[in-house]
Structure prediction request, 185 residues.
Amino acid sequence: METVEVVVGRIGRAHGIKGDVAVDLHTDEPERRFEPGAVLRVEGTRRELTVASARWHSGRLLVKFEQLADRTAVEQARGSVLVVDVDPDELPEEEDEYYDRQLVGLEAVLPDGTVVGRVSQVVHMPAQDLLAITTETGERLVPFVTELVPSVDLAAGRVELTDLPGLLDDEGADVVDPQATGERA
Prediction:
């Protein structure tokens, strides 16, 4: 079976002396990726870490790995990037949710089917996610909300964008040339 390597977290600081470690998450599904018995790999190596337990503490995920018995072992592993191999067709548990790897590379099209660019990355912001769309005129950031991205069709390899002036170009934008007005930029 073909798989895709996905980053799910990074080992942070030790918590206590018994081998618990804070994990900086890179997944929207920590309960799924860090469930007891889950086997993670340290990126770029064959080293595997098995989740013994996971719990939330003050807004952070604390994980105990079977192979990291104490604070010294955790400190030596600090900064390690944790990855898992997943089926490329695996979908998130929530409907209308997507993994970044599923969106990157999709064509961006208008409702009439006109191709206007390609998704180059997903930018995660506190308020909402943004799709970075590479167009002929450069990269544009589009809020990943239903009003602007009404449909995602993974099978067809495309995302549909609302045909809104200024979304992918500077049409309708009030651009002022500071030199023309004598103002300093």
In short: Residues 174-185 have pLDDT under 50 and may be disordered. The radius of gyration is 21 Å. The first helix runs from residue 30 to 33.
